[in-house]
Specification:
2 domains; about 350 residues; alpha+beta; OB fold (Dihydrolipoamide Acetyltransferase, E2P)
């Protein structure tokens, strides 16, 4: 099964609920067959944006174009969009097959063609053997697969996923996340995926849109968002981050932990800045404990292939953490004296 991929252009959307601006000049272009994840904390506007694209809410102003056609005034049932919610929203008295076929039945598709399409989609999501089961006889992950198949059955122009995995346990969530990406690539439908889970967004999306207070702060590939965040807010939101005391020593240069690092960003007080460093941009070596970058190991958290080593600087008593391969971290225990080395091509300052 493959669908005709379409482009989505969202321009200058504004949405207010009373005095609260849920969306503030929100704009986003999505290429045909692209999967864009909207990532942000609760209340940032990501679900509001999705509901407006679906036609479930109306913006105060702005445009939405589907392959060049403005659809902002079209009712939801005329937009040909498939939506999967956090709650599975299956009809409890219908089998998996009947749930998937429901949208086709509403559109007047005849019985045999309807059943054939439902079976094809249940096979696509890995439930070909469960087509006669009721939702109560399926696990949460299986129910969400049925909901995904139902959304795809109508051959939507755009697939909209609103926190579809958040009600599942961690193992099932990871499995279904990978399945959604496989199916999206195979089917080729343009997709918007809303989530608050960073790992989920980074793993599944072609581009990740970071939202805060109704604004889209950055939309780029997962690697670009992580390695080159557009500002301090994005840097701190995506992934773990250390904020280490330092000082500017020249244009684009700062001294941190006794070392010179290339930096970008603005600071009010050049003599007293914070340098943002990822845990993997720091390394440890054994130390006598007397150097300017010496620290004491305060805890170790084993995370499988990596170990998170927390340290406290012996000079200013600032805390930070380092991500090390577990084989390297085995050399340290709580109380170990270490030197911290910075291994960053460029860092942000605030």
């Amino acid at each position: 099964m493959s669908l005709k991929a379409v482009a989505v252009h969202i321009e200058n959307l504004h949405k207010h609920f009373g005095s609260v601006a849920a969306l503030d000049d929100f704009s986003l272009e999505i290429a045909p067959a692209e999967l864009v994840a909207l990532l942000g904390p609760s209340g940032c506007g990501k679900t509001t944006a999705l509901r407006i694209v679906a036609g479930l809410d109306r913006p105060n102003s702005g445009q939405i174009r589907l392959d060049g056609k403005d659809i902002v005034n079209l009712p939801a049932n005329k937009r040909n969009m498939g939506m999967v919610f956090q709650a599975y929203s299956l009809f409890p008295a219908m089998t998996a097959e009947e749930n998937v076929a429901y949208g086709l039945r509403v559109r007047g598709v005849k019985g045999e063609a309807r059943r054939k399409k439902a079976h094809e989609l249940l096979e696509l999501v890995g439930l070909g053997e469960q087509f006669k089961r009721l939702p109560s006889q399926l696990s949460g992950g299986q129910q969400q697969r049925v909901a995904l198949a139902r959304a795809l059955a109508i051959e939507p122009s755009v697939l909209l996923l609103d926190e579809p995995l958040s009600a599942l346990d961690a193992k099932v969530r990871t499995q279904l996340r990978d399945e959604i990406k496989r199916i999206q690539v195979e089917v080729g439908t343009t997709t918007i995926f809303v989530t608050h889970d960073q790992e989920e967004a980074m793993a599944i999306a072609d581009r990740v849109g970071i939202m805060r207070a109704g604004k889209l702060e950055q939309c780029a590939s997962p690697a670009e968002v992580y390695i080159n965040p557009v500002n301090v807010s994005v840097a701190k939101f995506v992934g773990a981050m250390n904020s280490v005391p330092g000082r500017l020593t020249g244009t684009g240069q700062a001294e941190v932990l006794g070392q010179s690092v290339s930096v970008r960003g603005e600071a009010k007080d050049p003599a007293n800045v914070r340098v943002l460093l990822r845990p993997e941009q720091l390394t440890l070596t054994n130390s006598s404990g007397n150097s300017i970058n010496s620290a004491t190991v305060t805890s170790l958290a084993f995370l499988g292939p990596l170990t998170r080593v927390s340290v406290r600087n012996n000079g200013d008593q600032s805390s930070m953490f380092v991500a090390l391969p577990s084989s390297e971290a085995a050399a340290y225990v709580v109380g170990s004296q270490v030197d911290i080395r910075v291994n960053a091509v460029q860092a942000l300052v605030e």
